[in-house]
Amino acid sequence: MSRENQSPINLPLKPLLIVLSGPSGVGKDAVLARMRELQYPLEYITTVTTRPRRASEKEHIDYRFVSPGKFQGMIKNNELLEWANVYGNWYGVPREPIKNALDNGRDTIVKVDIQGAATIKKVLPQAVFIFLMPPSKEELGLRLKQRHTESSFDLAVRTKTAEEEIKQVSLFDYVVFSWRDEIHRAVSDIFAIITAEKRRVTPREISLT
Prior knowledge:
By secondary structure, this protein is α/β, with parallel strands linked by helices. The protein has helices at residues 28-37, 68-76, 95-103, 114-123, 137-147, 152-166, 183-198, and strands at residues 17-21, 43-45, 48-49, 64-65, 80-86, 89-94, 108-111, 128-133, 174-177.
């Protein structure tokens, strides 16, 4: 029988929840922006925050910006999968968009800090956890300085926090390095991880109620 006449075996492809995390300044937003540009079939979940919007940021793309009162209301109504106060501002992951995407069989990706990733792992341990790693601590410090978005004090706090966060890498399934001016390498590695996960003999079972 020729290959053209063979019927493919239908394997059960389960939707994935990819949790992308890493220290502040490592390039998570840049990687996600490139993935969007390449139009990979993923549902991108927008994090909710009380932090003021930066000039370069877009509503519902980079974050969903809300008031502290609105954020507390979302917590009370169980609308957030996880939430935390980071550097004086609240950040949270909305529950309903993730549930809807997974229920409709769509692979989903969400960006969170290390604390958020640890919380999600307790709730959904079968998610795919990817740690975006800087090539060196010195490089990460340079990137934070070049953002010009923090005071000297805040910069020192973020740098110290990043050093501690890197020590939490064992909580994750995969490490992807974020090289300067080579976003395509990180994106390619993430796509490779997704492809490999789709080839698992025993697929991950992710259920969010």
